[in-house]
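Researcher: Let's do a round of design. I'm pasting the structure tokens now; please hold your answer until I've finished.
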């Protein structure tokens, strides 16, 4: 599977009673597909996957796969810090019709490189669905080195990519430089998408495209086509919005922005809560007059 381009880590909308808002979710998926994104990641960090039940995940995965109908790659966030649970979720997601799964590196346990390799190998051997490593040290408390990720890629032919959210361009370059032919790197930090693609990344799994899919798609595809002038122009235009998404913990700001656009309710699942009044004012100031042209 050759994975590339713009993949949106989509939010999970909730109703005011706290349930998954399936109607709003379908609208969000339709907006992404109409904007021409290459893929949608469902139940990842931005989708509050850590606080969704297995039944809710199954509903979201199957709904996204059915709605996309092959028009966009659907990737399911199935990673946990328990290998057996991850295998069960990965098999379930595959049965829901998704195209790939995203496997966050185990958090809290702090496995050694040998443990990480055994973890990914066990999942790879349990299911033939394409798999993407998700290295996000800011959430897991542990960076997975280039050496370890490459060892996983060499040992696991169904591990086809890594989402690199280490914010370490040097590490990204080492992975790109030594990656086997079946293994790609996707940027995991929106603001580093352009430099990562310039170094050989194949695309990005992004937050900003929840509300700016057209503009960010232009940046990503211009960069992939070596149209530096267009990519630079979009990068500079979007700089304030990259930062806005992380004023508070993701996905708090992006869900607030989507709620101001009338696309979802401003609802979160505990322990996440809505943004502070100061943050709300800051976000409204940043997004005054914004349009995803």
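Researcher: That's everything. Go ahead.
Model: Designed sequence:
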């Amino acid at each position: 599977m050759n994975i590339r381009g713009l993949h949106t880590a989509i939010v999970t909308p909730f109703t005011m009673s706290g349930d998954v808002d399936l109607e709003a979710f379908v609208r969000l998926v339709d907006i992404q597909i109409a904007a021409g994104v290459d893929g949608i990641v469902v139940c990842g960090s931005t989708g509050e996957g850590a606080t969704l039940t297995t039944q809710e995940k199954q509903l979201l995965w199957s709904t996204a796969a059915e709605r996309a109908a092959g028009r966009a790659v659907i990737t399911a966030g199935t990673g946990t810090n328990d290998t057996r649970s991850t295998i069960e979720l990965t098999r379930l997601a595959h049965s829901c019709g998704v195209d790939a799964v995203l496997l966050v590196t185990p958090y809290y346990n702090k496995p050694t490189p040998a443990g990480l390799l055994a973890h990914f190998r066990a999942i790879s051997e349990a299911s033939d669905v394409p798999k993407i490593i998700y290295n996000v040290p800011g959430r897991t408390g542990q960076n997975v080195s280039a050496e370890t990720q490459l060892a996983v890629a060499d040992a696991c032919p169904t591990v086809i990519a890594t989402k690199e959210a280490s914010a370490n361009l040097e590490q990204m370059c080492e992975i790109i430089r030594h990656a086997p032919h079946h293994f790609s790197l996707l940027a995991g930090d929106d603001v580093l998408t352009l430099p990562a693609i310039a170094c050989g990344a194949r695309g990005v799994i992004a937050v900003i495209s929840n509300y700016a899919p057209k503009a960010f798609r232009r940046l990503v595809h211009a960069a992939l086509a070596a149209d530096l002038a267009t990519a630079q122009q979009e990068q500079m235009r979007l700089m304030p919005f990259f930062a806005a998404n992380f004023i508070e913990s993701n996905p708090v700001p992006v869900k607030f922005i989507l709620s101001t656009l009338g696309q979802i309710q401003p609802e979160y699942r505990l322990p996440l809560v809505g943004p502070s009044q100061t943050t709300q004012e800051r976000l409204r100031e940043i997004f005054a007059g914004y349009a995803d042209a």
